[in-house]
Design a protein that fits this description.
The structure is a homodimer.
Chain A: H1 12-30, H2 37-44, H3 48-52, H4 58-70, H5 82-98, H6 102-115, H7 117-144, H8 154-171, H9 178-192
Helix pairs in contact in A: 1-2, 1-4, 1-6, 4-6, 4-7, 5-7, 5-9, 6-7, 7-8, 8-9
Chain A binds a DNA duplex through residues 2, 8-12, 15, 36-39, 45-50, 52-53, 58.
DNA sequence: TCATGATCAGCACGCATCGTGCCGTTCCGG
DNA sequence: CCGGAACGGCACGATGCGTGCTGATCATGA
């Protein structure tokens, strides 16, 4: 006789969703330091097997948790003007990356990736490449519209843009503010712009 | 009566040096994963107190160990030509960062810095800033020589150069090869060069 | 010369996390 | 309704953390 005051035991995909959400909650409340599999299972009221059955590694779990909140803030209607669109995209990305739950989860993934080349590759494939790709689409459109020189390796250009911002955010105490973004875009346009 | 076949108990600065060297050795042999204070003390034949008395944090120890091998490969006689000098400096830095013991220790510091803002600030102040500074000196010299535009924020420019390389090295699976460095320098010169 | 205090190695502790194993229960599909 | 998968709970050994304590060793200065 299941007590109606106790939640029924959830399984499968529903459990998975719940676990990812708990991970994000924990990241928000106790930060990167509190993101142990043990703590996540405890908080979720779940046996550790239930976690390990789904993710072989803490990195894998964190990557999935990250994906849960990653794409939400990236939908943006481009206006067609390169400088405006890149600026808006970068501002949104930085804003998302600066506050929980994205910030602690992201930093945890970065840390995890340093000790595991596979996790590093997954991080780049699933997230960093996404941002580079989004940037690449914008600069490609601008190039076709004649706003950028035709002889430019846009893939590399996108990497420079994103890399500079990530570097500052992850490895320096300086904030990625509008001044930084504007400076970066100015340099970019000076190098590759047609005007 | 001290047995001459057993090494005399070392103290003070000598001990400190030995511990840093053990840290680098461990990093070379077992990599980032093996860099626990416990393992370092064990390998050095030393009580853990002897480590904790010197460094309050694993991050502090790693930062000091890093400094031991950091500056060695950076002495380089600039020729006066910006492109050549930057290229040479970046090639050397990347080469040093790619192999042990620098690579595992560096990655350990990066990981540590993600969970501790103080460690992050120390990392930037003691190492990243050093590289930025070295780059800054070169571009400043070039600006005075008229090779770069006069209206450029060189500090920011140096950050872009270094940040791009660090991003690729630390967070992507792509190697920082000559093509990447050349592409970066081409973009830099296109943006800020006077010719 | 010798005493004092700092430094040291070794051991132990309590705590936490990891990854795994086992048990008995709950739930779902056939 | 039954069999098997998923589950919660518990326990285990291993490892690292940071901190005590003890007794030996060393440097210094009186």
């Amino acid at each position: 006789m299941p007590n109606e005051s106790s939640a029924p035991r959830r399984r499968g995909a529903v459990r998975t969703e719940a676990l990812l959400q708990v991970t994000l909650d924990l990241a928000t409340e106790v930060g990167y330091a509190g993101l142990s599999i043990e703590a996540i299972a405890r908080r979720a009221g779940v046996g550790k097997h239930t976690v390990y059955r789904r993710w072989p590694t803490k990195a894998a779990l964190l990557l999935d948790a990250l994906q849960r909140v990653w794409t939400r803030d990236l939908d943006y209607r481009p206006t067609g003007d390169l400088h405006t669109d890149l600026r808006e995209q970068f501002l949104r990305s930085v804003s998302a990356l600066t506050s929980p739950p994205l910030d602690p989860v992201y930093r945890a993934v970065i840390a995890e990736a340093q000790s595991d080349p596979a996790a590093r590759a997954a991080l780049h494939e699933r997230f960093l490449r996404t941002v580079e790709q989004s940037t690449l689409e914008q600069v490609t459109r601008a190039q076709r519209a004649g706003q950028l020189r035709a002889d430019v390796d846009l893939t590399f250009a996108a990497e420079v843009l994103c890399g500079t911002l990530y570097y500052r955010h992850l490895l320096t105490p300086h904030p990625v503010d509008e001044a930084a973004i504007d400076g970066l875009l100015d340099m970019f346009m000076a190098a590759y712009g047609t005007s």
